[in-house]
Every structure is written in structure tokens, then in C-alpha cells.
Amino acid sequence: MSAKLETKVSDAWGSETPPQARSADTSGMVQATGSAAESGGWAMPVQAIGLLLVAPALAVVVFLFIVPLISSVTGAFDVGGALSLGNFAKAFELYSGDMLFTLAIVLLSSALIALFSIMIGGYLTLGSNPRAVAILRWIYRWPLFIPFIVVGQILRTFLAKNGLMNNIFIELGLMTPLSAMSFLDWRGIVIAFVWKQTPFVALLLSGAMASIDRSTIEAARNLGANRLRILVEIVLPQVRTTLLVGLILSFVTMMSVLSVPLMINAQSPTMITANMAFRINAYRDYGVANALGLISLLMTSAVAWIYLRQTMREHSR
Amino acid sequence: MKTQLIASMLAAGMLCTPLSAAELTVLTAGDKNMVDYVNEYLGPLFEKENPGTKVRVVGTGPGDAGSQKILERFEAQGKAGVEKWDADVAVVHEKFVGPMVEQKFLEAYRSRIPTGSLVTRANAKIALGTNVDGYVMPMFNSQTALAYNPALVPNPPKTYDEIVEFAKKNPKQFGYNGIKGGASGVSFVMGWIYAYGGGDAQKLMNGPFDPNEAKNWDKAFASLKEFTRNATLTPGNAGTLDMLSRGEIAVGPVWVDMFYSWKANGQLPPEMKLVLPAPGMPGQPMHYVVPAKSANKELAEKFVALATSPKVQAEGIVKRFNWYPGIDAQHVQANLDKETWAKLFTDISPEELAKYGKPFPISPYNSAILEAYERQVGN
After folding, report:
1. What is the pLDDT of residues A70-82, one digit of tens each?
2. By residue range, what is the domain housing residue B90?
3. Tens digits of residue pLDDT in B287-324
């Protein structure tokens, strides 16, 4: 349930994307929010119509998001009908390792996604070989259109000990059959997340990079800066907010993925989502599952707080 | 006016009844093969024998999660006070029929259908400690066993002691899927507790439940943790078979029917074999149940009677899907050629199956063992 909630949360953020990100050409929705805000001083009847127009959306948010969220939160504190912290005690007793594991996996994945999307965005903006840029532009978005479950399925056979990847390495003579090992553990999850989410962040980032003032880049180039230096010192600071937004949205998405840990990671520890599914399917225990959901919600909220603080600071400037 | 109203209502009723009676909704938990079984085989057969009827099948997903969804559906409709539920027949895992009977969601129909007397096995009367006699008809019986690659393991382990020995000598060559990746791993763990739990395994299978029993398991779980270090953890029931076929592991617990189906499809090398180790591993039936608020009870009973007839059990369950029959085997054997029958019992003889094929522990023990595993082995 909370997986659904989190994507909802991310939707809400998406529409709040700050003006800086508007230049990143993220979506038409952002533009619409902007113009609605500007029209604040209009006459009363129009405002009433506006409220009416908002009402269906508001009702959907209340019934499909707020109400389930509240029932999930109260469910987390409910042990046999009484108010108690028992579910949390059990969640921490059994799954504290898994919580740290989840956080570590998602943070590591986010860091790698940042690195790769900066590399992709940077090359698309500063690359000097037009053909290479065109090919990269064409190819990098593909994983965007592949569902997580399919990513899990592909990588499950690709990364196995005697899977396609190791077989290729062995055929090429880069590896002996004895030294082959399976990547179907935490590394597999990180690979799946990075592979799937990098294009998303790169898409946002390259849009933002394309819309910054080219003259700043040209000036740096004229002064003899190499491309890496331009990327790090000129381009990146200007698109920092967009990068942060993309990473936060990815963070929330990765926190809610169940299929990848189920398909790839057979080991323990595993991710919180797998434990939530297990609590429900094996024990019919919604209490601890709700508690785990709330804990993962707290993790994503912490990230959301960083994001909000950041946008507040940008606005106050 | 009044008579007119009644007449029009009657007319409407006459128009509607044949329509609603003609459609039979079957909910089924389990993998896609369960949906296929009804869609491709059982449904058409039933429609042919009952002209004008239509069988609609809804798959609710693999594993316990699928049965859980069916149970929740019944609960929701029960709480809402719905008079006619949207299901006529459901196929659910053994673990879920107990709660369904306790909450009075089911119809006691077995005595009314002609095939009811063909089932005498204990698991059709007691489901994990709950008396369900009369409410269920087993669709099939499934069993877990160890699959192995004879090229790598000429002498497979025949007891749990020998499995431990094997894993010590051949690190990482034994693979199982833990407890979160499907029931074949769960079954291996239950078998481990039956063997090393320190208490009476019969008590775990038949009750009564005693929470203090869990203390006896500490040693067994400590040794299982040690054992798991020498083993490979596989991603799911299918993951074990995958790794076996790629030669990444040499032995692992699997569902017998999956094993045979994969072999028949060429997903598993034909030389792979099965062994059922002593003192035994669990298996479970899947049951046909009829909701108490079904709109087409009579038709539903007819459907289950057909599904559990010796002919369908032979042709559909044994021959097509390599499951062990739900009704007593002697009624099915007469309807099958020797070869098909022998194939089902090539690696595991009927005597071994009778001796080492165990039920799962009763529900509270089942949950207690799983949670103890999470606490002591998984952490």
C-alpha cells in the first residue's frame, strides 16, 4: 500500500517543481502551476470556479491518498485492537538490518545515478562529435520504457553465475569459469536500480543543461577551460536543483520497488518492501507491514525535507 | 397495479435467471498454469457437458499471496453483507481453507457430490489443524523433494543427516530459496525442524499448539544457520531449478510437479532426478471450495464433481500437469496407461511417498517456525 502512497507523494512533488526546474523543460504541468499562481488577483466568481475545478482532484487525493495513509498509520500502532508500539518493536527486532540495507542500497544507487547522469548530460551538452551525441541521445532513454519487473527478469539471467554476462567474459578469455561469481545479491539490486533510473535523471538533467546560457560555456572555453572543468565548475552549479529533484524522485521510486529485490536478491538482508510483502502473505500480519511502511515513509520524508528546505532557500533568494 | 408489478418482476426474473445461472466464476490462486488448466481443459469440458454454461476463470496470483487475495475478497463481501458473492468456485492453498471454514465463508458440499466418497486421505479432513471435513475437495496433492544432477552427485543424500554431510563436503553445491522466495524453501526448513526440532514432529503436524515448543528449536536453527553458510540461497522456487539447470548448484528442494513440467518443456536437462529424504518433507493439496453465498451453488457442485472425477483427475491432473491426484490414487490408476503412471513414480516410489511425504505444520506452528527462522537464521 505504501508503495502506492509514495508514488503519490512523488507526484505531488513533481507539480511543485521550482521555477528553476521549469527551464529544465520537465513538463507542461509545471508551467500551468506557474501561471495559475500569477493569476491570484482575479475576481471572486472566477475563484469560486477555480475551487470547483480543484474539487475533484482534491477528492481523489483525500480518498485515495489521505484516507489510506491515515488507516495505514493507525494500523501500524494497532496490536490486537489496542494502541501499542509492539509492531515497531517487532519490526526493529527482525528487520533493523534490512532497514539499514535498504537505506544503503538506495543511497549508493542514488550516488551512482548522479554520477552517470552527469556524465550523460555533460556529454550531450558539451560533446564535440555530433554523431556520437546523436547516438547517445537516441539510446540512453531506452531503459525508461522498461518496467522494473522486466529489468529484474532480464538481469536475473544476465548476472547469474553461469549467466550471459559471465559466459561472454569467459568466451572472451577475460575470466576463467572457476573465478565466475554470481551478482545476484546487493550488487544486482544496485545494478538494476542504476540501469533503470539513470535515464530518468539524465533526461531531466540534460534538459536543464541544454537550457542554460551557452555564453557562460563559451566564455569558459575561450578562457581555455577543458570540458571536464566546464562541466564541473560552470554547468553543474547551474543545474544543481534539477539534479537534486531527479535524485529525490528516484530515491522515492527505488524505495517502493518490490519486484527487483524479489527477483534478484535471494540473500538476507533484503529490502523493506520484500519484508512487507512477506509479513502480509506469510502471516497475514498487516500491523508489522504497516509499521515497516511507516518507517520507509519516514526515510522518504527525510529526503523530502531536504528537498523542501532547498527550494525554500532558492525562493528566498 | 400490484399484479402488473409482480408480473413484470417475474418476467424480468425469467429473463435474468438463465443468464446468471449460465455463468460460473472460478477464482484460482497459483501460477499461470492453474488458470490455463481451467481455461484450456476443465472449462471447455464442463461447457461441453452442460450446454449453455460459460466458465469464467480469474487468476489471483501465485503462492500464498494468491489465496490470501481470495480470502480477503470473501471477507470484504461478508463484511459488506453482499447477498450473492462474485465467485462460485475457488481453488485455494491448504493454509487458507481453515480460516475460511472458521469464518463460515464456505458451503459443506462434499457429501452432496458423487466423487465425495473417493477421498479418504487425512488432509481432506484436517487442514493444518482445522477441521474442514465436508467443505473441501482436493484438486491435487503436491510434494516437495530434492532435485539433483546425477552427473555431479552420483549418490544423492537420502536423509537430512546426509544433506548436512553433503553441504559440508561440497560447499555452495546445495541450494534452497530461504523462506521468502516460495514454498519449496519453506518446506525444506519445515523438514529441518521435523528432523532436528528436538520435539515430536507429529505434534507440529497435528497440534495442539504450545508456544513453549519454540524453545526446543534453538539448536536446530543454530545448526541451520551454520548449514546455510555452506549452502547457496536461490531466488525463488524457479530460481532453484534455474540454478540446477545451469549447473550452479547440484542439489536443491523443488516442487515435484514443477520439476516434471520443466523437464517436459526442456527447461531442465532430462537426466535430472528426484529423491525424497528421510524423515520427510512436507507437501500440500490445493482445494476446491464453494463459497456459502455463491449464486450458482448447484452448478458449482457439478463443476467440482467433474473436476474430481477419476477421468479428469487422470487426464488433467496426472497426465497433463504431473501432479499427484487429489482423490485416492487407486481410483485414478484404472484410468491411466501404465507408462504415465510409472512416470509419476519413477524417482519416488508410492511407498516412499507414503512414508516421507508429510503435511506442513499446523498454522500457528508454521508461523512460529517462519518467524524463528527470520530471527535466528535470517538476521
Report:
1. 988 998 998 888 8
2. 2-141+284-348
3. 999 999 999 999 999 999 999 999 999 998 988 888 88
pLDDT digits (tens, 9 = 90+) for B244-271: 998 899 999 999 988 988 888 888 999 9
Q: Indicate whether B117 and B218 sit together in one domain.
A: no
Between positions 57 and 96 of A, the ones with CB within 8 A of B are 93-94
Buried b (16+ CB within 10 A) or exposed e, A206-218: bbbbeebeeeebe
Residues 159-198 of A with CB under 8 A from B: 160-163, 182, 184
Minimal Cβ distance to B246: which of A160, A269, A281: A160
Distance CA A118, CA A124 (A): 10
Q: Which residues of A touch B243 (CB under 8 A)?
A: 160-161
Is this model's pTM higher than 0.95 or not? no
What is the CATH classification number for the domain harbouring B113?
Answer: 3.40.190.10
CATH 3.10.270.10 describes domain A2-316: no
Question: How many Å lie between the alpha carbon of B216 and the closest alpha carbon of chain A?
Answer: 20
Among B64, B177, B374, beta carbon nearest to A94: B374
Provide, rounded to the nearest whole percent, the portion of chain B with pLDDT above 90: 53
Q: Collect all residues with Cβ–Cβ distance below 8 Å to B126 and sequence separation of at least 6.
A: B132, B133, B206
Pairing of strands B324-325, B357-358: unpaired
ipTM here:
0.70
Q: Which of A245, A241, A244, A154 is nearest to A196 (CA)?
A: A154
Same domain, yes or no: B226 and B366 = yes
Residues of B numbered 338-377 whose beta carbons fall under 8 angstroms of chain A's beta carbons: which are they?
367, 370-371, 374-375, 377
Which of A93, A161, A269 is closest, CB to CB, to B248?
A: A161
